[in-house]
Amino acid sequence: MLNIQNIKKQFPIFQNQPGLVYLDSTATSLKPKVVIDKIKEYYEKYSANVFRGIYPMSEKATMEFEETRNVVSKFINTNKPEEIVFTRNATESLNLLAYSLGRKIVESGDEIITTIMEHHSNFVPWQVLASEVGALFKIVNIDNKGYLEKDWNKIVTKKTKILALTYISNVLGTINPIKEIISQAKKINPQIIIIVDVAQAVPHQKIDVVDLEADFVAFSSHKMLGPTGVGVLWGKERLLKEIYPFMYGGDMIDEVYIDRTTYKDPPHKFEAGTPAIGEIIAFKEAVKFLDKIGMENIQKHEKKITDFAINRLINTFGQSIKIYGPKNIEDRGGIVSFTFDKFHPHDIAQILADEGICVRAGHHCAMPLHTRLNVPATVRASFYLYNDENDVNKLIEGLKKVKKILE
Amino acid sequence: MNIYQDIILDHYHHPHNKGKIIHPNNSVLTNNPLCGDKIEMMAIYDKDRVKEIKFQGEGCVISQASASMLTDYAKNKSKHELKKLDSKFIIKMLGIDLGLNRIKCAVLPLEALHKLL
């Protein structure tokens, strides 16, 4: 069991915002002091550029920077740090793939598959790519319980070049059976490239990319207690070598001549220009923080609190609360999206905000999914390691106030 | 200041000018895809003046109250006068502090009115 009071003490924001009920970790997580201190350490003690200076400060910065690559690679269980590419965020990682991989392998008449539950960042890049090259853009639907359609035999074909899908839906909370999907898809078409958006998974449960047998995964530091401006793209070494570079410039080149240029090996091939050095250096503190608490403990805690929240919502408001996504708590991450009576999600979020409760209202960058659910917007409460039953109770009290004001 | 003032809630619960005009001179539909708000607005003109104006649609408290108050205001005003209205007028009309994210809800009816004129 997690000691929430003890965990909260390590997040300075709870001292600076007394009474804060933060239920929006799916959008971005709060940051522990160790992460903030590490950023400060870089800027105050060795704020040099990486890979350039021969002087000790630059060597220290480079060493700290590369150490994050090691820590992250171990965290997702690839023991090859050179397979970890730093980007700005998961969105950039996915866009990188649409350019560097998509434009290399997808041709007219091929197929690209994604799902209706994707975040726009794993939907639009593929939609645009398909339209540019004349490929078929196929969308896997969900059933009315919030699970992906299962007849992969009808979905994946020999013409499918890319399957891009999320591990955990940022709206429904559905945990997709990714390992099983990958194994089925590769059985039908061994050449298929599978890209998994793990932005909502890596912060909340143990992910082993080798065991998953995915080809690429993408996630963001800021959703897992780390700084903003840092994303990760993991890819199989062979594929990272084959695909095109993304951006051209400093650090990523090997030799430049008047008539030609050669590039460095991955991961540096994809890291053009000065990166977010301080943020990347501090990112490893977030990973270590999570590791120390233990991903299994975090997952268990989130399941408990999500279960508690769903039961309290239903017991308090009955039929007037409609919760989206799987009913079985085992198939769901710490995300509860709902609509409440005829009240508009923006009004609900606004009245909750006045009570110091932070939730998200809107389509959560998943407009195709909301169209499928036939609602313009939902309210989303999401939980992380610093949330407890008190936060849920305050949410319930806040919703009672919503009812009182708007009814 | 609280957004959900009595006057705002009163317009939300009992909107003025909500409904349909059977034979309007003009009718428009405006929506905000971000929150799903939709406003249909229609009017009958007497030369240059708004003689009759109505709206219908779904939306949050702010957009509904704004539509109710704005259509009240628009009656018997000239097209010329109404074209000059801007978001500052809407904020003043509602009399509440709106954060950056809610201004869009408040001005949606104004967008509809400008399209209508």
Q: Report how far apart the termini of chain B are.
A: 33 Å
Radius of gyration of chain A: 22 Å
Which percent range describes the beta-strand content of chain A? 15-25%
Give me the CATH superfamily of the largest domain in chain A.
Answer: Type I PLP-dependent aspartate aminotransferase-like (Major domain)
Order of SSEs of chain A:
HHEHHEHEHEHEHEHEEHEEHHEEHEEHEH
Helix content of chain B: 40-55%
| Percent of residues in helices of chain A | 40-55%
* Integer-rounded radius of gyration of chain B: 13 Å
- The assigned structural class of chain A equals alpha/beta
**Could you give a short account of the major beta sheet of chain A?**
7 strands, mixed
Total DSSP E strands of chain A: 15
CATH topology of chain B: Sufe protein. Chain: A
Percentage of residues in strands of chain B: 15-25%
Describe the structure.
The complex is a heterodimer of chains A (407) and B (117). Chain A has 407 residues and is of the alpha/beta class. Chain A folds into two domains: 4-25 and 294-406, Aspartate Aminotransferase, domain 1 (Alpha-Beta Complex); 35-291, Aspartate Aminotransferase, domain 2, CATH 3.40.640.10. Chain A is 42% helix and 16% strand. Chain A has 15 helices and 15 strands. Chain A has helices spanning 4-9, 13-16, 33-45, 56-75, 90-105, 124-133, 152-155, 178-188, 209-212, 237-242, 277-293, 295-317, 345-354, 367-373, 389-406; strands at residues 21-22, 84-87, 111-115, 136-140, 160-166, 193-197, 216-220, 231-235, 253-256, 261-263, 321-323, 335-340, 357-358, 360-362, 378-382. In chain A, the strands form four sheets. Chain A has a seven-stranded mixed sheet with strand order 2-8-7-6-5-3-4, with helices on both faces. A four-stranded antiparallel sheet of chain A has the order 11-12-15-14, with helices on one face. In chain A, helix 3 (33-45) packs antiparallel against helix 11 (277-293) and helix 13 crosses helix 15 (389-406). The two termini of chain A are 39 Å apart. The mean pLDDT of chain A is 96. Chain B is an alpha+beta fold. Helices cover 42% and strands 21% of the residues of chain B. Chain B has five helices and three strands. Chain B has helices at residues 6-13, 61-74, 79-83, 87-94, 103-116; strands spanning 26-32, 37-46, 49-56. The chains are: A alpha/beta (407), B alpha+beta (117). Chain A binds chain B through residues 344-347, 350-351, 354, 361-363, 367, 375-377, 405-406, and chain B through 2-4, 9, 12, 33-37, 59-62, 102, 105.
